[in-house]
Amino acid sequence: MKVLVPVKRVPDTAGEKKIDPNDNTVDRESVESVLCPVNEFAIEEAVRLKESHDAEVTVLLVGPESAQPIVRKALSYGLDAGLQVTDDAIAGSDALGTARVIAKALEEQEFDLVLFGNQSTDARTCLVPAAVAELLGLPSLTYARHLEIDGGSVTVHREHEEGWDVVTSQLPAVVSVVEAINEPRYPSFKGIMAAKSKPLDVRSLADLGVEPEQVGANGATATMYEFKDRPPKEAGTIVEDDGTGAAAAQLADWMTEKKFV
Amino acid sequence: MSELLVLIDHTDGEPRKISLQILTAAKQLAGAAGDTVAAVWLGEGGSDVAATLGNYGADKLYHWDSSDAQAYVTLPQVEALEAAFEASGADTLFFASSNHVKDVAARLAIRLDAGVITDATDVRAGEGGRLDVTKEVFGGDKITHSRVAEGRKQFVGIASNAFPAEDTGGGAPELVALDMSLSDAAMATTVDAVEKQGTADRPDIGEAAIVVAGGRGLGDQAGFEQMEQLADVLGAGVGASRAATDAGWYPHRFQIGQTGRTISPTLYLGSGISGAIQHRAGMQTSQHIVAINKDPEAPIFQIADFGIVGDLYQVVPKLIEELRARKG
Ligand SMILES: Cc1cc2nc3c(=O)[nH]c(=O)nc-3n(C[C@H](O)[C@H](O)[C@H](O)COP(=O)(O)OP(=O)(O)OC[C@H]3O[C@@H](n4cnc5c(N)ncnc54)[C@H](O)[C@@H]3O)c2cc1C
Ligand SMILES: Nc1ncnc2c1ncn2[C@@H]1O[C@H](COP(=O)(O)O)[C@@H](O)[C@H]1O
Question: A230 in a domain, yes or no?
């Protein structure tokens, strides 16, 4: 089977993010970038499909040339090939614009399964997987905490607030995974070395036949036009317990005063 | 005059609290602009809850009384909403910004060429009929304003507890049954089973006014029994840090943080949680934050309104006792 894994470059959550006041986008150069951690779970699931179903796995990234190390990083987990869509016109795309580019890139590929992360750690919209599925006319089985391939069909345990739904559809299908699905392995030294020479195809919007005005800041369906820092929080009351738990009474007083009791 | 559509998220035949909050907010926006609010109920039982929806602000209720809405994944809801848009001529859709509902919004947005903004914490009337949508990004570090591009339908996903739910006694809405026949594609992905993992009578952490959360400091799975006892005194939901869900002490769907749920209760009470940035990303917009941690340097104290430096195994049992005494 053939599997596509779309991955995103995101700013490291632990680093301070600066927003560029000129165009209200994240100033990517100001903070260390990483492979979106949620995508590691999709990659691990793809590696397992290599082991169990002899899957051939291609990783797909939409983003600037400087994001290429992220594609190599994804390959270092043992994936087979990389595909990057790079174009100046993509900058400033919203989730639906990104989805259009991903969908166009996927149209050129043969695949049985697309494995997304359920969300990206920076945008956190969760919109991209379902939007891509819609553009391709495919089923979307999202928030998978368990995945099984059986011949031509896929079954997923789709997590929700109260548990999960067991859902099934025919392949090809779009799946997004949550981190409960597996425990990602680290790339091996061999994997890291091999990643350097794995095939990596780079495509432009023109190559894919995407009109530049459909994507980027101009094609965005929604725009952020103002941003500010969250006002700093006033220092709270911190009490030290004497080792007997007696401080709980003060907390209970405070909670009563605030009408939580 | 136009209709603002509100997609009602529901479980076990009851609207979720967030949907009542959205109705309340939509009613206010509509009132100011001379518009009306139309709720959309997909699945069985819409007419049974019509009066409730009316009381929270629905002037009209589009309903599709069919078990098919839940028998297949996402697409039935997309197609039914398409029908609702057609019947209503609406330009605006509000939806609960929770996971499965976002899928419906994403697919419908592609079909109707709409713009989508998720996780709104405030919505106001803006220039040129475009809604001014407030949203917190980077785990609540930045507060932003967004709007949907001109000429597109506006889909806005609302975060839990962004608005109060107010019963204003509006009475029964006008009922409009949606006439639907599903496409084959909509029936291609089947729901074969629904696993509900009993959480007793505890509220969902996304909706709960109070959330009690436990972390690695609990030491073991049994520590969560104590969290549940505390929660039940307060009528709270129980959440966990990733260290606790990773250890298997509590299920992943209760994880709070960057890769778990984002919550904004009126009170968050964390025990044995250090307050790593990825955890804060899911809870720092809570109105009040309480932390119990034995390490005075734990970062959670930087954002706590009330903190106790102490051993949770001493403090929490006393707290349960004190709260029970106060409740009488
Ligand atoms: C990509 C990524 C995504 C992540 N996503 C999330 C997420 O969604 N949610 C999340 O929570 N984390 C997430 N994390 C993990 C996060 O970085 C922290 O590791 C995690 O939040 C720590 O959990 P904790 O606070 O329970 O444990 P610790 O950081 O180990 O803290 C335990 C605390 O308990 C205190 N303690 C110990 N014993 C006692 C006692 N007897 N009484 C009182 N206090 C005690 C200690 O002083 C300590 O502060 C993510 C990490 C990464 C890299
Ligand atoms: N620029 C991108 N390139 C490739 N995949 C992406 C990109 N942006 C988002 N994705 C995928 O979409 C998922 C959901 O992201 P989001 O909708 O932004 O929360 C991510 O986990 C990725 O798998």
Answer: no
ipTM of the predicted structure? 0.94
Measured in angstroms, the CA of A195 and the nearest CA of chain B are apart by: 27
Return the CATH number at B278: 3.40.50.1220
Residue with tokens 């006033």: A234
**A52 shares its domain with A174:** yes
Number of domains in chain B: 2
Considering only residues 51 to 110 of chain B, which have any Cβ-Cβ distance to chain A shorter than 8 Å?
73-75, 78, 98-100, 102-107, 109-110
Q: Which pair of tokens denotes residue A225?
A: 């036009």
The overall average pLDDT reported for chain B is: 95
The domain of B305 spans: 210-327
Contacts of A166 in chain B (CB under 8 A): 191-195
User: Which residues of B are less than 8 Å from A160 in CB distance?
Assistant: 99-100, 253
The token pair at B109 is 């947005």
By most ligand atoms within 8 Å of CB, the mutation choice from B227, B258, B280 for ligand 1 is B258
Considering only residues B299 and A24, tell me which one the structure prediction assigns the higher pLDDT.
B299
Atom 52 (ligand 1): residue with closest C-alpha? B278
Domain-located, residue B225? yes
Are B170 and B293 in the same domain?
no
Query: Which is nearest to B253 in space by CA: A40, A95, A157, A8?
Result: A157
Residues of chain B found within 8 Å of residue A153, distances taken between Cβ atoms: none
pLDDT, tens digit, for every residue of B166-206? 999 988 999 999 989 999 999 999 999 999 886 668 999 99
- Give tens-digit pLDDT for B6-17: 999 999 999 999
Helix%, strand%, coil% for chain A, nearest 5? 35, 30, 35
Kindly state whether residues B158 and B256 are assigned to the same domain: no
Question: Cα(A193)–Cα(A57) distance, rounded to whole angstroms?
Answer: 18
User: For atom 8 of ligand 2, which residue has the closest CA?
Assistant: A8
**Host domain of residue A241:** 236-261
Q: Number of Cβ pairs closer than 8 Å across A and B?
A: 273
Contacts of A134 (CB under 8 A, 6+ apart): A140, B78, B106, B107, B110, B111
CATH number at residue B61: 3.40.50.620
